[in-house]
From TrEMBL, chain A:
Subcellular location: Cell membrane
Topology of this chain in the membrane: Multi-pass membrane protein
Transmembrane segments: 39-63, 83-106, 118-137, 164-190, 202-230, 262-280, 287-307, 319-342, 354-379, 391-415, 427-450, 470-495
Keywords for this protein: Cell membrane, Copper, Electron transport, Heme, Iron, Membrane, Metal-binding, Respiratory chain, Transmembrane, Transmembrane helix, Transport
Principal location class: membrane
Protein name: Cytochrome c oxidase subunit 1
Gene Ontology annotations for the cellular component aspect, listed alphabetically: plasma membrane
Family under the similarity heading: Belongs to the heme-copper respiratory oxidase family.
UniProtKB/TrEMBL annotation, chain B:
Organism: Mesonia oceanica
Name of the protein in its database record: Uncharacterized protein
Lineage: Bacteria, Pseudomonadati, Bacteroidota, Flavobacteriia, Flavobacteriales
């Protein structure tokens, strides 16, 4: 039985990009490369906004007893910062890279559903801008990125902010579901006939698995969001305990989405790292099958651990105990991957490009984040540290030191392919060092702050807590370094994009199919797809006398 | 306090069960030529069955422990069948061409049926057992109450358990068929197992989170469980039952999926068809 039916699209139905219509045609584009690039711009735009919000937060917290910002506005800031970074920066950046690269990696000329692809992008865009419109409509959402009930219900959040949050996330959620469906279908149906599923590049494999995760997780979020919208708009009380609802139910909805979501953001980054490290170590990935299979294990286990976000809501030891165990178990497949990446580096002839350096920074900082995660999978430790800055440190080590470093590694790696130009390595190194050092300054000390008992989301703290003030100041200074790093990155982008296109097809001597196309690829990616017999087709072409083991 | 005496009293270990287990193992070792790993699988299967039926753990059931029933179900439906199939040599008469039972010949053609059968058995078996337990002990189990003389008590528990074991074997057959060539394709197997895992998770979730928190007698070590050697409140007992099904139950299928995938990644159809030609010659 074949898993799909081939439905032929009519030849000329889809609008085409022609040069005489200029930039405007991007709006109507259904080309996966243009959509991918637009996702990346969108992510960059919101990254700047979310970054400015973070700078305001850090400015407010730099010293004790500070009243630079009002408490109300502070709540809006951290809510929008978290929501923006997760749903409007990391998601679009990863989906954008995947939208751009997946067809190229599997020898296809388009995504399976080009119009759905455009729809997904525009939904994400609309959701994001709608959410930001709330600032002009009486105040942004202010109940935290996870929007706990009953705080988020109308009697406690009486501005329209939370409604904007709900509708905005429903829209971006629909976009993500569309993207997930598109990835899965594209990879199942549009691979070049040579490529069997077990020959996919690791990035493509992880996006494939991620597609299923998205399809399973986002509907849970959207269901919860709709229910809360009904609560707020039509006076229902799904999540209002005083009239028979259950506030805990919201937490279940949110985290049964939320924990898979953290892996939805981690897996594509793992995929990027699994492409970058081998290429710059001149080594085949060590243990492909373990990296790939552990991805599946992570995806399946991801749905069995969410209650670790709720250890403090008063469940019994029985329930907590099992979720502690499953949470620690999910660390194992992640650890397997780290070992394989290190194994790939071992005895490689390493080229320390900026991309590679970000990958190494990822390895170190993501591992720290995994360890802090494992530490509060232990229930009593979690009771002590939950809702403190320790959680903030954990989140940032996995999302910023993990996912975002992965994205930067990917951007520096694929930039020549996407734009035909090389980002400056010199500025890149400034960006890298400032960012990595600033990052560790900012967040390493937050572990200590958490242990000292500083709650997350507080607007200010008494300046007589001397050590708090010192650590917070360090944290803020680190944030300033990251701010400068991003300015360098933007400058790098700006001057690079003004240069002429000089990148050859395969500047890094990489091995996957996207590097067989022009840089940037033509509107039709491949006139002719090279024959593929292993996971490294371009290696086989370059080394006919020493090809990889044949897999088809 | 857990009463350890209960577990070390020889009377609570079924002697007949030990004899039977030894005999079965001896027969297996004598009559079947198998690999060492298969022998190990078989011995573990028998030990598991003994522990869940002949050991003091099985006797805990009489104290109305819901979690214990769940443990038995997991062993019978999910763990033992897989180990059992792994221990059976591929030339066993049951699976050979001579034995003309199509269901066993080509079990993979029936995989949807097997999937549903085992899902129905899992949910149905669980609720029936809960009902019987409730009738016997007078407690409410998983929201189910049955009176002392309810029709449900007419169903022998052993019938449910045997049916569970059979359903478990049929479920595992498409994926763990001793004859390799008759197994489902690797990716199909993974989906097959994963969807089953979802079904287990849902049952586990339902059982764990429907544990009642509001009645006094659920939060006290009340009635029957008070005398139990492993005193659990009704609530803890039920949560334990659900979590057992959910977490270890699910991880079992995750592990199985991963091991299937690990060999699939290295699979090469060219080599495979070549060896097929060789053996055909
Ligand atoms: C070794 C694996 C991991 C374990 C055991 C783990 C465990 C935990 C636990 C127990 C919490 C709840 C802390 C609390 O609120 O009291 C938590 C929070 C969080 N984790 Fe992890 N984690 C792991 C890996 C990751 C990864 C890989 C990511 C993302 C890529 C991640 C993202 C998050 C986020 C975003 C939160 C905070 C949610 C919030 O309260 O705002 N974690 N983690
Ligand atoms: Cu989590």
């Amino acid at each position: 039985m074949s898993l799909f039916i081939n439905i032929q699209e009519g030849e000329d139905q889809l609008p085409e990009v022609t040069s005489d219509k200029g930039r405007l045609l991007w709006i109507s584009s259904v080309d996966h490369k243009q959509l991918g690039i637009m996702y990346l711009w969108l992510a960059l735009f919101f990254f700047i906004i979310g970054g400015l919000e973070a700078m305001l937060i850090r400015a407010q917290l730099a010293v004790g007893d500070n009243d630079l910002i009002s408490p109300e506005f502070y709540n809006q800031l951290f809510t929008m910062h978290g929501t923006t970074m997760i749903f409007l920066v990391l998601m679009p950046a990863l989906i954008g890279l995947a939208t751009y690269l997946i067809p190229l990696m599997i020898g296809a000329n388009e995504m399976a559903f080009p119009r759905l692809n455009a729809f997904s992008f525009w939904m994400t865009c609309l959701g994001g801008f709608l959410m930001y419109f709330s600032f002009f409509a009486g105040g942004a959402p202010d109940a935290g990125w996870f929007n706990y009930a009953p705080l988020s219900e109308s009697n406690y959040s009486s501005t329209q902010g939370v409604d904007y949050y709900l509708v905005g996330l429903i829209l971006t959620g629909m976009g993500s579901i569309g993207a997930g469906l598109n990835f899965v279908t594209t990879i199942l149906t549009l691979r070049s006939p040579d490529i069997k599923l077990n020959m996919l590049p690791l990035f493509a494999w992880m996006i494939f698995i991620n597609g299923f995760l998205i399809l399973a997780a986002f509907p849970l979020l959207n269901a919860g969001l709709f229910m809360m919208l009904i609560d707020r708009q039509f006076d229902a009380h799904f999540f209002i305990p005083s009239s028979g609802g259950s506030a805990i139910l919201w937490q279940h909805f949110f985290w049964s989405f939320g924990h898979p979501e953290v892996y939805i953001l981690a897996l594509p980054a793992f995929g990027i790292i699994s492409e970058v490290i081998p290429v710059f170590s001149r080594n085949k990935i060590f243990g492909y099958k373990f990296v790939a299979a552990s991805t599946v294990a992570i995806a399946l286990l991801a749905f069995g651990v969410w209650v670790h976000h709720m250890f403090a809501v008063g469940m019994t030891n029985t329930v907590n105990g099992f979720f502690a165990a499953s949470s620690m178990l999910i660390g194992i497949p992640t650890g397997v991957k780290v070992i394989n990446w290190i194994g790939t580096l071992y005895k490689g002839s390493i080229r320390m490009t900026v991309s590679m350096m970000f990958a190494v920074a990822f390895l170190i900082d993501f591992t720290i984040g995994g360890l802090s995660g494992a530490s509060f999978a232990i229930v009593p430790i979690d009771w002590q540290l939950t809702d403190t800055y320790y959680v903030v440190a954990h989140i940032h080590y996995v999302f910023l030191g993990g996912t975002a470093f992965g994205i930067f590694a990917g951007i520096y790696y694929w930039f020549p392919k996407i734009s035909g130009r090389f980002l400056s390595e010199k500025l890149g190194k400034w960006h890298l060092w400032l960012f990595v050092i600033g990052f560790n300054f900012t967040f390493l000390v937050q572990h200590v702050l958490g242990i000292l008992g500083m709650p997350r989301r507080i607007y200010t703290y008494p300046s007589r807590f001397g050590s708090w003030e010192i650590f917070n100041m360090i944290s803020t200074l680190g944030a300033v370094m990251m701010f400068v790093a991003i300015a360098v990155f933007l400058w790098n982008l700006f001057i690079t994009l003004k240069k002429p296109r000089t990148a050859p097809k395969n500047p890094w001597e990489a091995w996957t199919l996207e590097w067989a196309t022009n840089s940037p690829p033509d509107l039709k990616n491949f006139e002719e797809v090279p024959r593929v017999h292993s996971r490294r087709p371009l290696w086989d072409l370059a080394n006919p006398d020493n090809p990889d083991k044949r897999l088809n | 306090m857990i009463n350890t005496d209960f577990f070390i009293t020889p009377d609570n270990w079924s002697f007949a069960g030990i004899i039977l287990s030894v005999l079965v193992i001896a027969a297996y070792l004598l009559f079947l030529k198998t690999k060492t790993s298969q022998k190990a699988y078989f011995i573990v299967t028998v030990i598991l069955l003994y522990v869940s039926f002949g050991s003091p753990i099985a006797l805990l059931r009489d104290y109305g422990l819901h979690s214990l029933t769940m443990l038995q179900h997991i062993v019978l439906l999910m763990i033992a069948p897989i180990l059992f199939l792994k221990s059976i040599p591929s030339n066993t008469i049951l699976f050979s061409e001579k034995f003309k039972l199509n269901i066993l010949q080509q079990p993979k053609n029936y995989y949807l049926m097997f999937w549903w059968l085992s899902a129905v058995m899992m949910w149905g078996g669980h609720f029936l057992s809960a009902g019987i337990l409730s009738a016997e002990t007078g407690t409410s189990i998983c929201g189910i109450t049955a009176t002392k003389d309810s029709w449900i008590t007419a169903i022998p528990e052993s019938l449910i358990l045997s049916l569970l074991f059979i359903a478990g074997i049929l479920f595992a057959l498409p994926v763990f068929n001793p004859v390799k060539s008759k197994r489902l394709a690797p990716l199909k197997s993974v989906i097959y197992l994963f969807t089953a895992c979802v079904s287990c998770s849902l049952l586990g979730l339902y059982v764990a989170f429907s544990a009642s928190t509001d009645t006094l007698n659920s939060s006290l070590t009340a009635f029957t469980t008070l005398r139990s050697p492993v005193p659990l409140t009704l609530r803890a007992d039920q949560e334990l039952a659900g979590m057992l099904m959910w977490v270890p139950g699910c991880i079992l299928y995750v592990l199985a999926s991963v091991s299937i995938l690990l060999s699939w990644y290295e699979e090469n159809p060219v080599e495979k068809s070549e060896t097929a030609i060789h053996t055909a010659k």
